[in-house]
Amino acid sequence: MPDPFDLTAVTAALANSIFSNKIHHLSRTASTNTLALEAAQSGAPHGSVWVADEQTAGRGRSNHTWHSITGEGLYLSVLLRPQIPLVDALWLSLATGLAARTAITSTTGLKPDIRWPNDILIDNKKCGGILVETSTTAPQSEAPAMLRYAVIGIGINVNHQSFPTELYALATSLRRESGRSWKREQLLVELLRALEDELDLLEAERRGSSINPRLLDRFTAASTWVRGKPVRVDEAGGYTGVTDGLDARGFLRVAGDDGVLHTVLSGGVRTL
Ligand code: BTN
């Protein structure tokens, strides 16, 4: 049996953070993102967090499911209410990917890669994924649509020793990569601290409504996928090419084998 989750220790460690006294633990839920979206609609505050031992209907990007067995992984959702235009929402995804990477490194010493926009990989296998879901206000005449809230769902494979057959070649866990198990509580605390740091940096760095280059520079330095990676992209009918950096808003550019400089909007980037 996995260790019971120690919410008291997590709450104490994050007493001076934006998450203070806003962390909720559940043994089992369908999806922490679904829970957070419902709570957001009911007025839950910025910085609320839901973490579950098990999800019975964990959701991934592109309508995938997220393998969420009891006690082996970290499954959480964070509710944020940043005052930013919808067009800048991508920075939340990039910043969360950086935070997850930082937390994994500070907890385990492992050095994950980030596949744009925010798949966490070790040795080209996925150990973490991020699903950002947003609600926006309607645009007012000249003013752009603003974020009302964002739910950031993060799943990290922590202590899994094996995976279902269909995931075996694609997925890994921190335990499989390091040879030992890890406390989910410690990783959660590191993750939320790193996320708050990223949010503070972004707030300080942001210029008007455009994404700050320093986030893009940090992301580019942390990911081998941003430049010079031969890839296949599963959008716009599918194409192949070589990654060519991020544009000003953080979208991935790919110099296509068809001679076109593509902008990847939604992910689905794979190695050739
Ligand atoms: C992906 O890589 O496809 C994103 C996976 C996101 C999974 C997390 S687990 C916690 C939260 N609740 C969900 O239902 N999904 C996210």
Indicate the topology.
Layout: H1 7-13, E1 23-29, H2 32-41, E2 48-55, E3 73-80, H3 90-108, E4 113-115, E5 119-122, E6 125-136, E7 147-157, H4 174-178, H5 184-205, H6 213-222, E8 227-233, E9 239-246, E10 252-256, E11 261-264, E12 269-271
Parallel strand pairs: 1-2
Antiparallel strand pairs: 2-3, 3-7, 4-5, 5-6, 6-7, 8-9, 8-12, 9-10, 10-11
Helix pairs in contact: 1-5, 3-5, 3-6
Bound molecules: biotin.
Biotin binds near residues 119, 153 and 154.
Task: Please sum up the structure shown.
Helix content is 27%, strand content 29%.
Low-confidence stretches: none
Please state roughly what percent of the residues sit in beta strands, choosing from under 5%, 5-15%, 15-25%, 25-35%, 35-45% or over 45%: 25-35%
Q: Tell me, what's the shape?
A: globular
State the major sheet. 7 strands, mixed
Strands of the biggest beta sheet: in what spatial order?
1-2-3-7-6-5-4
Q: Could you say which small molecules are bound to this protein?
A: biotin
Whole-Å distance between the termini? 40 Å
Question: Mind telling me the C-alpha Rg?
Answer: 18 Å
Structural class: alpha+beta
Task: Report what the structure shows.
By secondary structure, the protein is α+β, with helices and mostly antiparallel strands. It has helices spanning about 5-15, 30-40, 90-110, 175-180, 185-205, 215-220; strands at about 25-30, 50-55, 75-80, 115, 120, 125-135, 145-155, 225-235, 240-245, 250-255, 260-265, 270. The strands form 2 sheets. The chain has a 7-stranded mixed β-sheet, with helices on both faces. A hairpin with a 5-residue loop joins strand 9 (about 240-245) and strand 10 (about 250-255). Helix 3 packs across helix 5 and helix 3 (about 90-110) crosses helix 6 (about 215-220). The termini are far apart. The model has no long low-confidence stretch (mean pLDDT about 95). The structure holds biotin. Biotin (BTN) binds near residues 58, 75 and 77.
